[in-house]
Each structure stands twice: as C-alpha cells, then as structure tokens.
Structure to design on (395 residues):
C-alpha cells in the first residue's frame, strides 16, 4: 500500500506537475515517513525540482538547509548557496527561512555580519506571530506551554540521581497523575470544603491542561466548565447576591474567595472565547464583574479590555479601561502590564514608563511584552537605539 501510494505521488508530481504531490513525496524521503526508507538524495532532487519549477519557498528553504549542513553528504556544504536559497525562501514568506537568515546575519555565517539585516528578518517572523496572536479570540490566543528541556525530563544535566532523587520513571509519573485525578474526582463528589477545593483543582487542570513531559492531560473545556461552574455556584449563591455580600464573604473566607475569583475569571473567558460554551458576551461580562469584586487580576484585565472594545454593550471608555488595567497590573499580572505599557507608548514623554511595564511582563515570558521591547530598542522609543539588543529580544 505504501509503495503504491509513493508511485502515485511520483506520477502526480512528475507527469502532471502537481507541486503538492512532489512536496509530500520529498518529505516522505527526507524524514523516512510511513515506514518508507529514508533517501536524502531523492529528497534533495525533489526539493530542487520544486524550487526550479515553481519557486516553492518551502522547497527553497529545505535546499538552503541541506547546503548549510551538508546533511547526508548529498551535497557539499556551501554557505553561499545556502544563503541564496534561504533568501529566496524568506522573500517567499517562509518563516523558517526568515529566522535562519536572522541568525546567519547576526553571526555572519555565509554572509557579512549585519545587525540591521538580522533584525529585519527576525522582525518579519515576529510580526506574523504577533498578528496571529492578536487575530485570535478575545484576550489573545492561548500560547503553547513552555517546552521542557530534555535534561529536565531525564533527571538533570548529569542524569537522574546525580543531584538528588532525579525524575521518576514515566510509568511512576503516569501512575501518580492518574492517582491524583482519581483521588480528586472521588473527593469532588462529596459536600465539604475539601470537595470544593478538589472541584476547583480539577476544573483548573482541565482548562489549562497538564504540560508534563511524559504524561499529558489535554485541555477539556466541557469538563472544566462543569467543575468550575460547581465551584462558582457554591460561592456566588443567594447569600452572596449583592456586592456587599461578596465583599463580606471575601473577608470571612479568603481562600475560598480567591478560588472563586479565579473561577469567575475563567468562566468569563470561556463565555467570551467560546470555550466549552456558546459565545455570550453578556455572560462573560457578568463573570468578569464577579471576579473583579474578588480582586482577581485576570478578571480586572478582561474588564479593561471590554471597555477598550466596547464589548457586551459597554461604552468605549479608555479611562475606565486604564483603571482596570492598573488594578490588574498592581497584582503583577503580565497581560495587564502589557496593556499599561501600550497606554504609555502612545505618549513619547512616557515611553520610559512603557518600557518598564514591558520589561516586567517580559520577565514572565509574555509574548507581547517581548515583541514590544524589541520594537522599542529597534526604533529608539524611550531608550537609545540598540540594534543588537533588539535582535536578541526578537530571537
């Protein structure tokens, strides 16, 4: 079956000039996919055919990679050809090529060292990532979890046990997570403060997902919404139907109130973004307002964003938005710190304050903050122009 599929792809790619078929076949040979034998020479020829025939940017990028590394000794390493093919790929809007050229120009690999050119290519890739982030659901796309380093997964730089007990075996870790989930599901079925805490932990875990290096619990918005709603309904009930009652409950039950604030903020996000619920801006606003009463920074920042956009029937009110962003930023919430920075970025006299907010958020690896810092150093907004600093931030 695999051999027949490869023959059909070859026929479509060469006899009928189908670029998608030839690209697929080249990748099969390059990576050895579908149990096919890896053949780098054939892959190179196919990428070259694609690049010559249609100027395919992805194929040009792969040719640049193979010339740069000399992978498999298919071709001799030739950095001049690598830069040439990679440049064509970058101007064909290939992101991997843009990042590669940013690195090559920064260090002068196969070309003259140029910080300006390095930043230009890094910025092209960063601009696309930033646009994609902003064009996502309200409050931005959910960023992927930070990757775990291989050394961390394997028990540290010198191996498990060299500096303490090391990482448990995958089977043991999987068993621990399974036991954790089963225990909390069992507790959550009861009626007690411990049950409420268990429901909160389960709801939060299902909403965020567990980015473990060996055992992963995928996001499940349906289950998250079920557990979080139980937590919210237990706190926001007939006895806490007014602002005064909610504030009193916050004073009397601070730990429960903190969980309820996080829960309300997450429910607001789910209604606004359509995560497990139909999109409902009015419901989102209701939950954000409840979370804000409990001083939750996620809810405060979301309310500020709603006033900026005029969402859920609210008037566009930048003053109110600023007040909510400031309250959330006072809690060191990075998204709010970015929003504060954007406010100050509009006034050249306040660029140094914007820089401080972006710096603070960038320390928490906030994507938008890092992007804005790169722009400020590149254009000299509030700081002297520093191309090398802009390049390091961008990459």
């Amino acid at each position: 079956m695999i051999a027949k599929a490869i023959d059909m792809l070859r026929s479509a790619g060469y006899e009928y000039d189908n670029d998608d078929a030839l690209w697929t076949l080249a990748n099969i040979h390059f990576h050895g996919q579908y149990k096919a034998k890896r053949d780098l020479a054939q892959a190179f020829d196919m990428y070259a055919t694609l690049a010559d025939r249609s100027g395919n940017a992805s194929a040009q990028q792969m040719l640049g990679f193979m010339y740069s590394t000399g992978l498999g000794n298919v071709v001799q390493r030739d950095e001049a050809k690598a830069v040439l093919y990679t440049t064509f790929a970058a101007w064909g809007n290939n992101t991997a090529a843009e990042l590669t050229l940013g690195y090559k120009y920064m260090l002068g690999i196969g070309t003259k060292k140029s910080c300006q050119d390095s930043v230009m290519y890094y910025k092209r890739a960063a601009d696309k990532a930033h646009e994609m982030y902003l064009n996502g659901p309200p409050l931005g796309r959910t960023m992927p979890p930070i990757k775990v380093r291989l050394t961390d997964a394997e028990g540290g730089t010198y191996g498990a046990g060299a500096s303490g007990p090391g990482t448990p075996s995958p089977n043991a870790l999987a068993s621990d997570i399974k036991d954790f989930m089963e225990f909390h599901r069992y507790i959550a079925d009861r009626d007690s403060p411990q049950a409420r805490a268990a429901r909160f932990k389960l709801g939060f875990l299902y909403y965020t997902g567990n980015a473990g290096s060996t055992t992963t619990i995928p996001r499940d918005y349906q289950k998250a919404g079920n557990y979080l709603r139980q937590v919210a309904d237990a706190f926001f009930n007939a006895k806490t139907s007014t602002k005064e009652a909610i504030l009193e409950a916050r004073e009397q039950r601070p730990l429960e109130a903190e969980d309820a604030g996080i829960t309300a903020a997450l429910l607001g996000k789910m209604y606004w973004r359509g995560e497990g619920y139909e999109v409902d801006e009015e419901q989102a606003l209701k939950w954000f307002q409840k979370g804000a009463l409990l001083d939750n920074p996620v809810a405060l920042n979301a309310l500020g964003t709603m006033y900026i956009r005029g969402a859920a029937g609210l008037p566009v009110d930048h003053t109110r938005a600023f007040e909510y962003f400031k309250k959330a930023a006072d809690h060191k919430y990075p998204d709010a710190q970015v929003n504060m920075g954007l406010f100050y970025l509009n006034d050249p006299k306040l660029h140094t304050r914007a820089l401080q907010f972006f710096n603070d958020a960038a320390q928490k690896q906030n994507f938008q903050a890092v992007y804005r810092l790169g722009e400020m150093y590149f254009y000299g907004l509030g700081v002297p122009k520093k191309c090398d600093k802009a390049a390091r931030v961008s990459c």
User: Anything to note?
Assistant: The two ends are 43 Å apart (CA to CA). The CA atoms of residues 256 and 366 lie 28 Å apart. Residues 2-93 form a domain with the Serine Threonine Protein Phosphatase 5, Tetratricopeptide repeat fold (CATH 1.25.40).
